[in-house]
Amino acid sequence: MKILIDEMDDGWDEKLKELGYDAYSVKKLRSDGHKLRTDYSVINYAKEHNMVLVTRDTESGQACEENDLPYILLDNDEIFKIVLEKLKNS
Length: 90
Prior knowledge:
The structure is a single chain. With 90 residues, the protein is α/β, with parallel strands linked by helices. The protein contains five helices and four strands. The relative contact order is 0.16. Pfam families: DUF5615.
């Protein structure tokens, strides 16, 4: 499974690689010359390369949903669930 990390979470690609995942960063791909300036180009790149997109951008998540692209949306609701779980375990 290939994973594409959206620019807000740059650095997660390195952490995932350390755990054995085939992960890439939008920011690093851009610095390597890939034209990934818009949400559309990022989503299209992920689709063309059979990648799961990890993003905090709800519009990108919706676009992935509409185009049958696998994605993980880290929106505020998901982050809030994590906070609640950690508070329960404290």
